[in-house]
């Protein structure tokens, strides 16, 4: 059996997906309960401001700037006590902070744009998009985990936003990441793509589903493919992963080898599911399909799975 580590590329496929450009030094071993206060006292601190699933962006000379200083953010009623320290860049500390001003009441020089649109439209650079994913996931976790799950007491943020402490029973809670298997079932000639009911018209993608407790990644890939498409899988191999801040998931991309061809799609989960041959998928990637079918955008891990298979001839 070969040892694949030394045959792997120097830059793994995960480095090329959306939200993977985060350059922040997290310094996780140095987080203290007062690290947010110390970071905010640093004049070089930069803040990402967020509210209701939107990122606040300053309008410049044709550019959109996601970074705010601590002082200039005060007019937006930022909730500094709920901010999280993402880490440190070359210029200083970086934080994600909830803003109190409603997006509809912002000055004309600031726009609030939802995370998905920021990512889909490439409105900020890759490093900022990676920081946005980190901050959005942490703020979403804090918003949905304010109370201790053991005794119901309101918990307190600690460790710069990477822990919540219950003052009543002493339980400590840590940010969660939900693992999701996303898989492209493929032979050398064709691959399996499906349409979710929430997809835009014409888009087909790889199948996906949450990994359940006590389940390996490979087992989840096989189970989800069988449940959604009726396709049994043999070999399963890992390809890449992607942070996905909707709200705090990690997409784990794999390829699966089909053992049967007959699709039995779960139409409660999917609107459609079918086999596509390589040339047709290539036209979908190029947005030249005669039926106006297409694949997810370049930043999505599904796109990278599909592209890697198409280019594997």
TrEMBL record:
Domain of life, per lineage: Bacteria
Gene (name only): nudC
Protein name from the UniProt record: NAD(+) diphosphatase
E.C. designation(s): 3.6.1.22
Any GO MF annotation of the entry: hydrolase activity
Reaction catalysis annotation: a 5'-end NAD(+)-phospho-ribonucleoside in mRNA + H2O = a 5'-end phospho-adenosine-phospho-ribonucleoside in mRNA + beta-nicotinamide D-ribonucleotide + 2 H(+)
Keywords, ordered alphabetically: Hydrolase, Magnesium, Metal-binding, NAD
Domain Nudix hydrolase: start-end pairs: 175-299
Lineage, broadest ranks: Bacteria, Pseudomonadati, Pseudomonadota, Alphaproteobacteria, Hyphomicrobiales
Alphabetical list of PANTHER family matching this protein: NAD-CAPPED RNA HYDROLASE NUDT12, NUDIX HYDROLASE, NUDC SUBFAMILY
InterPro entries with a match to the protein in the record: NAD-cap_RNA_hydrolase_NudC, NADH_PPase-like_N, NudC-like_C, NUDIX_hydrolase-like_dom_sf, NUDIX_hydrolase_CS, NUDIX_hydrolase_dom, Znr_NADH_PPase
Pfam family membership, one: NUDIX-like
UniProt-listed CDD domains: NUDIX_NADH_pyrophosphatase_Nudt13 (cd03429)
Family, as annotated: Belongs to the Nudix hydrolase family. NudC subfamily.
Natural source organism: Mesorhizobium shangrilense
Cofactor(s) it depends on: Zn(2+); Mg(2+)
């Amino acid at each position: 059996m070969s040892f694949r580590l030394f045959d792997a590329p120097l830059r793994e496929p995960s480095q090329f997906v959306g939200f993977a450009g985060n350059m922040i030094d997290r310094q996780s071993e140095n987080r203290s309960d007062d690290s947010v206060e110390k970071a905010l006292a640093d004049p070089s601190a930069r803040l990402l401001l967020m509210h209701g699933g939107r990122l606040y962006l300053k309008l410049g000379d044709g550019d959109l700037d996601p970074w705010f200083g601590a002082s200039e953010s005060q007019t937006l009623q930022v909730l500094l006590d709920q901010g999280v320290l993402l880490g440190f860049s070359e210029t200083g500390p970086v934080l994600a902070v909830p803003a109190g001003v409603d997006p509809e009441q912002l000055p004309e020089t600031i726009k609030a744009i939802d995370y998905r649109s920021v990512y889909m439209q490439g409105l900020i650079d890759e490093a900022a998009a990676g920081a946005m994913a980190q901050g959005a996931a942490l703020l979403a976790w804090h918003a949905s985990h304010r109370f201790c799950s053991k005794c119901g007491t309101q918990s307190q943020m600690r460790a710069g936003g990477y822990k919540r402490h219950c003052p009543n029973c002493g339980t400590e809670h840590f940010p969660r990441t939900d693992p999701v298997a996303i898989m492209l079932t493929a032979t050398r000639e064709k691959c399996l793509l499906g349409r979710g009911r929430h997809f835009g018209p014409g888009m087909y993608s790889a199948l996906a589903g949450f990994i359940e407790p006590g389940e390996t990644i490979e087992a989840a890939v096989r189970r989800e493919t069988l449940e959604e498409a009726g396709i049994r899988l043999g070999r399963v191999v890992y390809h890449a992963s992607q942070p996905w801040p909707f709200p705090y998931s990690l997409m784990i991309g794999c390829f699966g080898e089909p053992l049967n061809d007959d699709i039995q799609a779960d139409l409660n989960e999917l609107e459609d599911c079918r086999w596509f041959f390589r040339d047709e998928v290539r036209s979908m990637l190029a947005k030249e399909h005669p039926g106006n079918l297409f694949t997810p955008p370049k930043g999505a891990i599904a796109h990278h799975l599909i592209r890697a298979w198409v280019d594997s001839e």
